[in-house]
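Rotation project, supervised by the postdoc (A.L.). Task for the rotation student: set up a whole-complex structure prediction and record inputs and outputs verbatim in this book. Inputs entered:
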Amino acid sequence: MTSDATSASAGGGTEAAAGPPKDGPAAVGGRVTTAYPRYVAGKVAGAAVSLLAVLVTSFFLFRLIPGDPVKFMTGGRQVSAEQLAMYREQFGLDLPLWQQFTDYCGKALTGDLGTSYQFNAPVVDRMGEALPNTLLLTGTAFVLYTVLGVVLGTRSAWRHGRLGDRIGTGLALTLYSLPSFWLGLLLIITLSVGIGPLPGLFPTGGMESGGEEGFAYVLDVAHHLVLPVVTLVAVEYGQTLLVTRAALLDEMGSDYLTTARAKGLRDDLVRRRHAVPNALLPTVTLIFINLGRTVAGVILVETVFSWPGLGGLFYQALSVPDLPLVQGLFLVFAAAVIVMNTLADLVYPLFDPRVGR
Amino acid sequence: MDTNDQYGVRHRTPGRIRFVVAAGAAALTLTAGLATPLNPAPHRAGAADDGTKVLTVAVAQSVDSLSPFLAVRLLSTSIHRLTYEYLTNYDAEDNHVVPGLATAWESSPDKLTWTYTIRSDSMWSDGERVTAEDAAWTFNTMMNDPGAATASGSFVANFEEVTAPGPTELVIRLKKPQATMTALDVPIVPKHVWEKVDDFSEFNNDEGFPVVGNGPFVLTDYKADSHVRLRANKDFWRGAPKFDELVFRYYKDQDAAVSALRKGEVSFVAGSPSLTPAQATSLKGEKNIRVNDAPGRRFYALATNPGARAKNGEKIGDGHPSLLDRRVRHALFMAVDRKTLIDKVFQGHAVEGAGYIPPRFSDYFWEPSPEQELAYDTAEAARLLDRAGYRKNGDGRRVGKDGEPIDYRVLCHATDPNDKAVGQYLQEWWGDLGIGVTLNCLDNVTDPWLAGEYDLAFDGWSVNPDPDFVLSLHTCAALPATPEETGATDNFICDRTYDELYARQLAEYDAGKRADIVRQMESRLYDLGYMNVMAYPNAVEAYRTDHIESITTMPARAGNIYGQDGYWSWWSAVPAADSGDGDGGSSSTGVVVGIVAGVVVLAGLGAIAAVRRRATAEDRE
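Outputs recorded:
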């Protein structure tokens, strides 16, 4: 699915330069052809097949791990044959593999992803508790680093080769290559604990201080949100910046921009209304991929900042390993990426009507 | 062509300024908006705004369940120690048994009947009186329901019958004598609450708060991987805790937890299970922080595969046959320089190992005599291997009976840096003997271990004041019945002499005589050479002295605070007189943040307004 979106974007990006619409705004939201429903059906069918493949993979992949899940679960404690049988029955492990598979598929389709070994609770419940926390953290970061990346990338391309571009690109590359957990720890030491006379301004971890209610609770969570968001934005914005910059640089030699300028349009308008819309396709791809990843959270950042989200849960599930939880999270993460990539494919024709013809 | 020159020059300067101002303002406005002056700083541990004294403890381990019938993890069982009384407790001074829910106990002449007097001054937190019927119901439920036996079923395995003839009298009939009847670490739950539970294997006790209990604290709130909150039980029979609240807060990263302590967000940090030497060193000398480097209750050992078998005699796994020779095992252990491990790996935060039970449990601690000791002696180790028939080949490698060079697989925990460091020393030391070592470091060692697919493995257990549990791990009875089942064994050791001693100590009600038998068992274990106890790692933890004025360690003279066998630490902790300073700091920090945030928000709004105004003006041109 990723390759579909990427190839479409590359085509859109380069071909758009050859024959763009005359008026900038019209470049976005071009007319969708009658082939669009078939295109949509194809993409949705592809996504459904991918989801099915993930469902099958998630079942068999984790059963390839050697060992007895019940022994994983009991962690080597003394367990009588009676108790082992009880656990096997409880988790459906006493059934033939094919029956386990059909049960798993049937239950997965109804939203039942089994029971977590370590929490002795439905996987869906544990994920349901963690999901909003992850969406809050990565969603906030996503909006910020996307806006920052697009704006800075546009500016950088428009003034490419100049000092500002070199500094901006260099900084983005540097931050992008930093390990997020390291940057997080650095922020904790400086902005949370404080250095010298500088006081610590932000909490060292967690999502709340506890005991707050109402608006005070909202403010408290917002306060805890700052450092993890800053870490994520710092590490992630560079990617959007670089993709946007590269795409816009491709556009900048195009004749239609010369034409636009020759019409007497201001440089600012040429950039915003003509060049940028045509250069956005690769960035749109990236934005949707990032949206998919948003659900997965960022494992290391959530761990460093003790953020109780899906990323931290995944880290924890893997360390046990808690197979039903790992399996459920894998399924949800993969599904999120597939759905977002499909959405990217579906909106492409809105940006470039030639896609989907 | 330089497109930048072509298109970019004319409006470069104002555009850049506008862009920088806009981007900076947007980022800072949002950040500052989050760091709101209305809630300027995180709540510091020590004291809440309303003067409530709060003791905040950093933890990393998830709660597996809040049901006493299911929980096995240290944090969960510690919470149960705080919220439910057990029949007996261990004295913080020297670990001897003291009254808990039971005020007295006695056994019948035939050693098969134990009668406990249940105290009449203990109340459940919902106002009901605690009676012997609650205890009888708890034990009977564990005896009759496999789900309720999940966590502590082994405690009732030898019970014949449990009854409550009166509200203060509990009678337990045994199948055979059992010396550990004053060490039944089972939380007693209120019958009137728990008898409504349908399925004990599924009920996690984490939905209705406050949870009815009778310990020094009442569980009032829990949010997975965020916090566990407990309120002081003002009616606790032993006296109310000095802190009003106890909060366990989650820090999944230990460095972040140390930072939280340094900042004052938490009052105590213990790590998992200890602070690293680097963390301890960095905290030493810090103002208002005390590092407690206490003798630990754990041992750190190297275990050899003794030819793993099930009770039915079937072989399990594929341990190296050379390790069945005691001389080889002794040779390997004589080539381990424990002093170097203490100095280099543990950096002094551990004590050199000897017997199976750490020295803090002085009644049971045992050391080999000089003649018996397998002291560090590589020359003697090499001679032992020669005598056993494992000589070096032309390449300097020791070869097995099959003529193949010996290369041992050593199971190690991927998450434990000590295992890896010690493993590297083993590679060097045993390499000098001509023996190869392959470190098999895994996140989950349980599976190959249970399958007997290892030659040696890094091993370690926390020892309770009553050593019965860790000693039982090496009895033949602990082996799995068949290779497919799971036994209680740690390392598949099965030795008749050891078993006989184990049975004798379990039936011996005289404490002194029992301790003597336990020491004989340790001696036997040492001679067998299946377990090499290399070190007793210290419990390294730290707390803020401006939050906690005093706190009881266990043992009192030099002991640990986190994970005690009892509730002494958190029950005894006395708030520091100046613990309100934390708030002061918080307030001053808040003022600073508030001012900074306010200025930045105003600047951000102003900048955005200016940019918009300018853009509008330009568009009108």
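Student's summary: The CA atoms of residues 13 and 279 of chain A lie 6 Å apart.
Supervisor addendum: Residues 1-30 of chain A have pLDDT under 50 and may be disordered.
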